[in-house]
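Q: What would this chain look like folded?
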Amino acid sequence: MNLSLIDILVIIGCVLLGAYVIISSIKNKKKGKTGCGCNCSSCSGCAYKKTKTGKNK
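A: My prediction, written as structure tokens:
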């Protein structure tokens, strides 16, 4: 199997993009943000929405 420079650069780019997505989702989770990135207080169908008791629906 003979990989060209373009193939190697594409593979490296995909790995970096995947790492960025994983790291940013971990950072958002630590900040208490939802996975969808939306304002869930106005979303009627959101699974992350809290009730008055502080528990998820």
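The chain has a mean pLDDT of 78.
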